[in-house]
What does this fold into?
Amino acid sequence: MKLQEIKEILTANRLRLTKSLGQNFLHDRNQLRRIAEAADLVRGDKVLEIGPGLGALTQCLAERGATVLAIEKDRRLFEILHSRCHDCPSLSLVHDDALEYLRNQARNWLDWKLVSNLPYSVASPILVELAQATGCPARMVATVQLEVARRLVASPGDRDYGMLTLLIRLRYERVGWFKIPAACFFPVPNVDSACVTLVRRREPLLAPVQARIFERIVKRGFSQRRKVMLKLLKNDWPSDRLAPAYGQLDLAPDIRAEKVSLEQFVALTRLLHGTEGGLHE
It folds into this structure.
């Protein structure tokens, strides 16, 4: 879908885009191709697309033989895409708020791939929601704001390393990413974007019950970035539980969360697992 075609469709339907919904349509063919290639699609793959807009990426996915479930929140765009793609048997359209849909649908996404130009305002919560699902997608190829992309690929000690990094990387390994200039979108956003590829780990690092403890540790540890993590964790675990765990992992008492690696957070979770009864409520 060329830029001129996007403009013509919007003009013909007298559509004014809604900034709050992050409606910036990717029209650059090379970038669309790179996203589709990052999905590593084979014919018959099931793909979840969130925020299809006018369907530029949707078309690329369908051309590669994918079966696409596209969720669009804007009724106007949903109706336009439905009228343009009504004869495409490999495409299912849903008019809904994607985040609410994911939270309300008890669906197993294990055999699915997420491939989306995600709305900026909900990109992070959508990725976390899918990553924490019991059946999380096999691969997630997400175009997000550059700032969010940097968080997803950050390492301990980086300025962007934080809660989002860890909540996603517990279940996913980063494969690659590339920047997408703002000029590739219409309307042109005020920020650059990037496409990040994440692949589900072959073996989970933690059992589901442990993953919930991991999330609690991470959220508490990053609740006040300037404070040492040990002091923050004492809100949930008593000192006589934390001190031995810190000692076994050789964690300095004054270390802050942004210096603690994923592996260390996982190990700390395993050591504290089974001590939930000692949590301060």
